[in-house]
Amino acid sequence: MSKPHVIVIGAGFTGVATAHDLALRGFEVTVVERGPIVNGTSGRTHGLLHCGGRYCVKDQESAIECIDENWILRKIVPQVIEPNGGMFVALDDNDVEYGESWTAGCDACNIPYERLTPKEALEIEPNLNPDLLLAYSVPDGTFDPLRLALAFAATAKSNGAIFRLYTDVTELLMDGQGTVTGVKIWDRSADERGELFADVVVSATGAWSGQIAEMAGAYVPIQPTPGVMVAYDRRLVSNVINRLCKPSDGDIVVPQRRMVVVGTTSYDVEDLDYVPVNEEHVQLMLERGSELLPTLRNTNSRGIFVATRPLIGAGIPGRSVARTFKCFDHKENDGIDGFVTITGGKATTLRMMAEKTTDMVCQKLGVSVECRTAEVPLLSYRQFYALQN
Amino acid sequence: MSERENKPNTSNWFMWFDVRHRDIGDWAFVLHRLTALGLVLYLGMHLIVLGTLTLGPDAFNSFIDLAHNPLFIFGELLVVAAALYHGLNGLRVGLTSFGVAIPYQKQLWYVVMAIAVIGSIIFAISMFTA
Amino acid sequence: MSTSKWDVTFLVYRKKGQGTPHYDEFTIKVNPDEYVLDAIERIWAYQDRSLVFAHACHHSTCGACGMRVNGVEKLTCITLIRDVTADGGKVKVDPLRNFPIISDLTVDMGVLYTRMDEVGHRPVLPLSEEPAEPGVKPVKIAAEGDIIRLADCIECGLCISACPIANTTSGYLGPAVLAGALQHGLDSDQHLFSLVEGENGVWRCHSAFECTEVCPSYVEPAGKIMELRKQVIWKRIFGIAK
Fold it and tell me: How close, in Å, is residue A261 to chain C by CA atoms?
């Protein structure tokens, strides 16, 4: 008996994690991606493994997802994580006041934190603004974006998943009765066109999921929201530094290798395939970032980049949209069978998003297999290149 | 270690001598290889010439006459210059290979070149005025 | 940032499947303070959807976007257009050398990754676990924020492409891999030692220093190879590397 075949469109974080989960649960999986692994939003994240503290006041659902997944990822894929910890830093009275609801939020979401005096904080991070009023340490971390995705992809590959990179999905194949049966593809590396058939097609295309859904005449309420990030060429901190305030622009500093990345902003775009840098935002990153780390002003920028987050809920301004994810079975809303969209969410919750998506695929195909991705350690990310299938 | 069927996109020995857009270390490497080839060639010729000794004094003496030709002397000067460079750069490579002065490999190369050029000039003067 | 736009012509290496390689010309308006990768991405978005190129993080932490720009190996996501051409100028973009070409500007770096695994290099390390490097200051975050880390290697392959020896000897482990081997030191395991001192190890290097020249990530592979040679000799004579 042949295994049910699932096509996953997109090899971003959600795509590779879903491919891993599907392959682990015994499905035959083909991932179709128009570029290399994580060339879109996922690759361009600042690489912050959230502890949830950023969301624990306004969006506790996201915060709980973050802290749970934070612990799981540390366990299953330590090879790509720098478990350096993080700090929330208060610089003015507003921040201190926000700290009260913040600690309450952390308690409610089970996020461990420890209060530090300015002296203690400066001992750990000598480059912090010496005028800070108080700080909390939290279990943030940093991950390497490409390698995190590769580790999932490698493990999926070892369980039989096939990755078709540099391959565009040009059309969704429909059977004429409102069921998606496969995809038309264009392999750009060989310049060949073809068709692939599947029992279910999963669109894991994040900010682009609206466009893919449209191919089937379905609808996804997605608000693509780009943000600017700036990488500076010195590693000024060992911890992730968050401003203790409600999420706004330029209030996170993430150390990556020998850099720090300051992020992020939000604005609107029309064309997702090339998002220009908003130059005012670059200046803003320096101003906001140097409030936390004054030495940033004496540091050169190394790279300026833009990532387009997929926020759920069209028509609502960026920051107030919940950062949780949603899985859409298009049979329910659009009457289209064989087609599932997963979008929203954050890098930190990739595994959980994959679990819910795979649950939905199982339910659609009437299969019942337990999810094991929270326990199974991932292979070396380099195996993605070593394995041939 | 698995080798792929698909071959790497470049593998030509003459790419050793591709110095476009490259830096001091690569120039040093290229000159080192070129001078080595030159010296090997010279060694071959040298042995052939010495071989004429077995043919008797006349054969050898007629060659020695040829050796007084200025063009021949210039050739010998090239051999001296190549030997100087190759030997001195060999010391530079040797030093860095033992972890000495790695950050100064470029400056070392300038020193090597300076000594090689000055030495060649001294040899040139003494060879052409002799 | 607010300078006037430049017209720049990009000569891009193209190859599809078993087809013949050639160059395509694309002229686009760019801001000189944009990166070469931005221009390539825009050529793909607006001029030629069939272009194949690799990229991911856009801030020099992943190592996916290595290419040769005007013949020199560059991490294109941090290479300013201003630094490689002028208004009205040309930029030639080629895939990296010494790797099999997948298509256009993308190469297969599988061999590099496999070898990095074989020497046990770990790409991401917490500061606390970072081994101190011999001959340099111990790892710490100074007030001015400078640290030395071996985990900086992002496996971009620039050093392999620039290396004249990797060019003729595909078996040569190559600068990145040898530098990676130093992470554990030669005393850690016998297999590593035999790899490093074997025929494709440190003695293959002929000191062209091109790897250090093109490394975008402060790894200085040439220096690391020399350090390994010292360790190999030490281990041969005294039975222990340090």
Answer: 9
Mean pLDDT of A187-206: 96
Query: Is A35 in contact with C154 (Cβ distance < 8 A)?
Result: no
Two structure tokens written together for A106: 């952390």
A195-215: average pLDDT: 96
Integer-rounded Cα Rg, in Å, for chain C is 20
CATH code: domain A5-41+146-221+323-386 is 3.50.50.60
* CB–CB contacts below 8 A, A to C: 168
Task: For residues A21-27, give the mean pLDDT.
Answer: 97
Residue A317, pLDDT score: 53
Instruction: Decide if A342 contacts A356 (C-beta within 8 A).
Output: yes
Q: Where are the domains of chain B?
A: 23-129
- B-contacting residues of C 147-186, CB under 8 Å? 162, 164, 167-168, 170-171
CB A228 within 8 Å of CB A285: yes
Given 1.10.287.3510, 3.40.50.300, 1.10.760.10, 1.20.1300.10, which CATH number is that of B23-129? 1.20.1300.10
Whether residue A44 contacts residue C58, with contact meaning beta carbons closer than 8 Å, is answered with: yes
Is the pLDDT at B27 greater than 60? The verdict is: yes
**CATH 3.50.50.60 in chain A, residues?**
5-41+146-221+323-386
Outline which parts of chain A fall under CATH 3.30.9.10: 85-139+223-312
Instruction: Supply the pLDDT for residue A322.
Output: 65
Cβ contact, residue pair C108, B6, below 8 Å: yes
Segment A353-382 shows an average pLDDT of 96
Alpha-carbon span A253 to A285, nearest angstrom: 10
B119 touches chain C (CB under 8 A): no
Cα separation, A242 vs A89, in Å, equals 6
Q: Looking at residue C170, what is its pLDDT? A: 87
Q: Could you report the per-residue pLDDT of C210-230, keeping only the tens digit for each?
A: 999 999 988 889 998 998 898
Question: Is the ipTM, as predicted for this complex, more than 0.90?
Answer: yes
DSSP C105-118: TEE--HHHHHHHHH
CB nearest to A235's CB, from C55, C108, C145 = C145
Q: How confident is the model at residue A22 (pLDDT cuts 50, 70, 90)?
A: very high
Sheet holding C72-75, edge to edge: C22-30, C6-14, C90-94, C66-69, C72-75
- Report the mean per-residue pLDDT for chain C: 87
The predicted model scores a pTM of 0.91
Residue A126 contacts C, CB cutoff 8 Å? yes
Q: Which fold has domain A85-139+223-312?
A: D-Amino Acid Oxidase; Chain A, domain 2 (3.30.9)
Which domains occur in chain C, in start order?
Answer: 6-107 (3.10.20.30), 110-238 (1.10.1060.10)
- Rounded to the nearest integer, the mean pLDDT of chain A is 93
Query: In A, residues 276-335, which contact C (CB 8 Å cutoff)?
Result: 277, 279, 282, 295, 299, 302-306
Helix (H, G, I), strand (E, B) or coil at C91: strand
Name all chains with 3 or more CB-CB pairs below 8 Å to chain A. C
Mean pLDDT of B11-18: 70
Residues of chain C under the 70 pLDDT cut: 1-3, 126-151, 242
